[in-house]
Amino acid sequence: MNEINVIGGGLAGVEAAWQAAETGAKVRLYEMRPVAQTPAHRTDKLAEIVCSNSLKSDEVGSAPYLLKEELRRGKSLVMEVAAQTRVPAGAALAVDRGRFSELITERIENHPHIELIREEIKTIPHDEITIIATGPLTSEALTVEIMKMTGDDQLYFYDAIAPIVAADSIDMNIAFKAARYGKGGDDYINCPMDRAQYETFYNELINAKSVPLKRFEETHWFESCLPIEEIARRGVDTLRFGPMKPKGLPLPATGREPYAAVQLRQEDLMADAYSLVGFQNHLKYGEQERVLKLIPGMENADFLQFGQIHRNTFINSPQILDATLQTKKNPKLFFAGQITGVEGYIESVGTGWLAGLNAARILRDEAMLVAPPTSAIGALCRYVSNVETKNFQPVNITFGLLAEAPLELRKKYRNKRERHNIQVELALRDWDEWISRIDKSSVASV
Ligand SMILES: Cc1cc2nc3c(=O)[nH]c(=O)nc-3n(C[C@H](O)[C@H](O)[C@H](O)COP(=O)(O)OP(=O)(O)OC[C@H]3O[C@@H](n4cnc5c(N)ncnc54)[C@H](O)[C@@H]3O)c2cc1C
Q1: What is the pLDDT, as a whole number, of residue 446?
Q2: Long-range contacts, 60-63 (Cβ 8 Å, 24+)
Q3: Which of 101, 121, 188, 444 matches a 20 to 30 Å C-alpha distance to 204?
Q4: Which residue of 339, 348, 397, 398 sits with most ligand 1 atoms within 8 Å of its CB, as the best mutation to test the pocket?
Q5: Atom of ligand 1 nearest to the CA of 12
Q6: Interstrand relation of 333-335 and 308-314 (parallel, antiparallel or unpaired)
Q7: b/e map of 99-119 (b: 16 or more CB within 10 Å)?
Q8: Which amino acids bring their CB within 6 angstroms of ligand 1?
């Protein structure tokens, strides 16, 4: 059969469907919204981004940049649309979330080889080429099927999302625009605090009431997405050295750094909404409003979205997947996206990209692709399929995951920044060489 099923029209699913369809393969893309909803999505659009509108750093020489650049060079749909819907965010790549998912939906709907079907898939089609990309909030029926298939206990953990406020409700007589260390213009709004204000805020925060968690005992937070109140509970100064650090944010009036600062990042092209950077939390909504209004400049803040807590579902990939993203038991079955144990929007896109290409290659009876270990996509796939650990945990892309640059180069560049720059350069060289060998010719006639 000359067709591929992609289940889930999120970031990974749309990229997988696009890559496969661009080779000429026929793709059926199943998205359950709006027939069934997830606890976090709000629209029926494909590739809806549910929390921060930042796709992370695009600073040359950083690991998130490398991942994006590989995708750009791999003709990624998501990266193309991200460039078209970009909003100012300093060194980060942030998008207007509404336009972003609208445009992606349009592109998918208009692709001659993709059929978009709005349906919740409840069973796994084992005999057909299928990519499961149903994300951290995979529907319950399918989760049960995946558990049966893997023969494993399903893993859960919880992430928390940051609040968003209306720009015109921030008091700009107190707050000021600036990017940290002047990098990237004045895309952020900063709310400064003196010591007394910080201490009051801190005490109210750690004593505020949280939403009760049904399975609280089983909760283990993902370290890079800790709720603000959990960070605070680790010590009075943890916030000042974490999400509220004032470094590189001098007050315009005095030129001196405040005791602490809250940064807000622009959320959309209209610049009418800002999210509180690093302020994901699981406080009750009333409590969030009360405590966050203690932040100087936010006394009259109008909250467009409160912080929330959500489930994250992922499989025990090292036991289940190969670096090609096929399951070890059934080479026709792939997983992609956050459900594989990568964490983050672009990490999910990267795995979708590879799964889509590989699924199409099965149709042509071609060898499966394994991305170079020096590349970000290669490193992520290697991690999820190979890491030796009893406690498999999702990861963002970092230099720690990449195959190391040759020793003579590491010796030559002692400074971390230089080393990272050279590592990115080498990775992209390998990537270009590898990608030039991938044949994306048509499978339509197979
Ligand atoms: C509340 C929340 C906040 C997050 N915040 C961030 C953040 O700030 N930054 C970040 O980088 N990452 C964040 N993440 C992680 C983020 O979800 C992933 O990075 C990314 O969206 C995963 O892409 P994906 O394609 O794997 O899953 P998704 O984008 O979630 O897409 C999965 C799709 O599958 C559909 N689906 C589910 N089950 C079925 C079924 N049975 N049949 C058909 N369709 C189905 C869903 O409706 C959804 O559209 C957050 C996740 C959540 C849930």
Answers
A1: 33
A2: 60/421, 60/424, 61/417, 61/420, 61/421, 61/424, 62/420, 62/424, 63/376, 63/397, 63/398, 63/399, 63/401, 63/402, 63/420
A3: 188
A4: 348
A5: 25
A6: unpaired
A7: bbbbbbbebbeebebbbbeee
A8: 7-13, 30-33, 38, 40-41, 50-52, 120-121, 133-139, 142, 159, 161, 310, 337-339, 344-345, 348
φ, ψ at 167 (rounded to 5°): -60, -40
Examine the pLDDT at 311 and tell me if it is beyond 50.
Answer: yes
Q: Which atom of ligand 1 is nearest to the CA of 342?
A: 19
Count the residues in the chain: 446
The answer to whether the beta carbons of residues 430 and 423 sit under 8 Å apart is no
| CA of residue 47 to ligand 1 center, whole Å | 8
Work out which ligand 1 atom sits closest to the CA atom of 310: 1
Interval between CA 14 and ligand 1 midpoint (Å): 12
| Class of domain 3-154+315-436 as given by CATH | alpha beta
pLDDT (tens digit, 9 = 90+) per residue, 338-388?
999 998 999 999 999 999 999 999 999 999 999 999 999 999 999 999 887
Say whether 46 sits in a helix, a strand or coil. Answer: coil
- Out of 3.40.50.410, 2.40.30.260, 3.30.230.10, 3.30.470.20, the CATH code matching 161-310 is 2.40.30.260
CA of residue 175 to ligand 1 center, whole Å: 33
Q: Whose CA is nearest to atom 21 of ligand 1?
A: 345
For residue 34, whether the previous peptide bond is cis, meaning omega lies within 30 degrees of 0, is yes
Q: Where are the domains of the chain?
A: 3-154+315-436, 161-310
